[in-house]
Amino acid sequence: MDQETKDYLLGALENVIDPELGVDIVNLGLVYDVELSEDGFCVVTMTLTSMGCPMGPQIVQMVKTSLYELPEVEEVDVKIVWQPVWSKDHMSRYAKMALGVR
């Protein structure tokens, strides 16, 4: 998969806003990888801000909804991983500014 396709998929995922933080999951650094096979099978490898994140199932559903809107995507599999552990260091400059994190 080329970088252009990956950027396209990440662009769709920027529509998924973490309900608790009000910033999208891409800028929060929660999305570690996204892949799309030629037959339309999309795999998102991501984490959550904490293991006990009550919004986890809702965020996963929002990820699926945003990707299913793309004509190339036939099926979505969201893999939640805990390694590497998420930290504020994963956040983009935009997310840090939006949340007042230094």
TrEMBL record:
<protein>
    <submittedName>
        <fullName>DNA methyltransferase</fullName>
    </submittedName>
</protein>
<dbReference type="Pfam" id="PF01883">
    <property type="entry name" value="FeS_assembly_P"/>
</dbReference>
<dbReference type="GO" id="GO:0032259">
    <property type="term" value="P:methylation"/>
</dbReference>
<keyword id="KW-0489">Methyltransferase</keyword>
<dbReference type="InterPro" id="IPR034904">
    <property type="entry name" value="FSCA_dom_sf"/>
</dbReference>
<feature type="domain" description="MIP18 family-like">
    <location>
        <begin position="9"/>
        <end position="78"/>
    </location>
</feature>
<keyword id="KW-0808">Transferase</keyword>
<dbReference type="InterPro" id="IPR002744">
    <property type="entry name" value="MIP18-like"/>
</dbReference>
<dbReference type="InterPro" id="IPR052339">
    <property type="entry name" value="Fe-S_Maturation_MIP18"/>
</dbReference>
<dbReference type="GO" id="GO:0008168">
    <property type="term" value="F:methyltransferase activity"/>
</dbReference>
